[in-house]
Design a protein that fits this description.
The complex is a heterodimer of chains A (111) and B (109).
Chain A: E1 4-7, E2 10-13, E3 19-25, E4 31-37, E5 43-51, E6 54-57, E7 64-66, E8 76-78, E9 87-94, E10 100-102, E11 106-110
Parallel strand pairs in A: 2-11
Antiparallel strand pairs in A: 1-3, 3-8, 4-5, 4-9, 5-6, 7-8, 9-10, 9-11
Chain B: E1 4-7, E2 10-14, E3 19-25, E4 32-37, E5 44-49, E6 55-58, E7 61-65, E8 71-76, E9 85-93, E10 96-99, E11 103-108
Parallel strand pairs in B: 2-11
Antiparallel strand pairs in B: 1-3, 3-8, 4-5, 4-9, 6-7, 7-8, 9-10, 9-11
The chains are: A mainly beta (111), B mainly beta (109).
């Protein structure tokens, strides 16, 4: 089936540890995005990529890193520099600047 | 940076009522997207609009691309309990996709 897959759905991390969230799509989309959502809040853009081997910082990139080595994959690393990493992370993909489609999200909790 | 403002912030309505919400921007947009998000899930695309003045329906949902290109509207007719969720507008701004602040809809039987 075509779609966008995020894994894992739930993730627990100890303070001071880096953690990588996976996002894979088989829709042949050029663009991929990472958003962060806090309880009762909207979506804030962390990083985005319009093409392989290129990505740009969004509004809240500090403490995060990404790579785009393959068209299908856009992993997000939450580093120990991110001071408040507990949140719901959403990955999306689309063609250029049109419609984007989301994965089911990863809920990260720092323990 | 550019923001998309949605109103109302939240709505509490009775089943069967019609719902209207809007999304405004200080900049011109060439595309407007409307999404619905249910608890614990990723947003799902409901309607996409590409032309000023365009009116598009998806079942009981109707969305309009404002003629000024700085706003968009979403209407839900005859609401049902499964309409509960957060509705987001979105649009491309420079080289990225940005989202509105959301309208939280609660439907009571």
């Amino acid at each position: 089936d075509g779609g966008i897959t995020q894994s894992p759905k739930y993730l627990f991390r100890k303070e001071g540890q880096n953690v990588t969230l996976s996002c894979e799509q088989n829709l042949n989309h050029d663009a991929m995005y990472w958003y962060r959502q806090d309880p009762g809040q909207g979506l804030r853009l962390i990083y985005y990529s319009q093409i392989v081997n290129d990505f740009q910082k969004g509004d809240i990139a500090e403490g995060y890193s990404v790579s785009r080595e393959k068209k299908e994959s856009f992993p997000l690393t939450v580093t120990s520099a991110q001071k408040n990493p507990t949140a719901f992370y959403l990955c999306a993909s689309g063609w250029g600047l049109g419609e984007a489609f989301f994965g089911q999200g990863t809920r990260l909790t720092v323990v | 940076g550019q923001q998309l403002n949605q109103s109302p912030q939240s709505m509490f309505i009775q089943e069967g009522e019609d719902v209207s919400m809007n999304c405004t921007s200080s900049s011109i947009f060439n595309t407007w997207l409307w999404y619905k998000q249910e608890p614990g899930e990723g947003p799902v695309l409901l309607i996409a609009l590409y032309k000023a003045g365009e009116l598009t329906s998806n079942g009981r949902l109707t969305a309009q691309f404002g003629i000024t290109r700085k706003d968009s509207f979403l209407n839900i007719s005859a609401s049902i309990p499964s309409d509960v969720g957060i509705y987001f507008c979105a649009g491309p701004y420079t080289d990225k996709l940005i989202f509105g602040t959301g309208t939280r809809l609660q439907v009571f039987p």
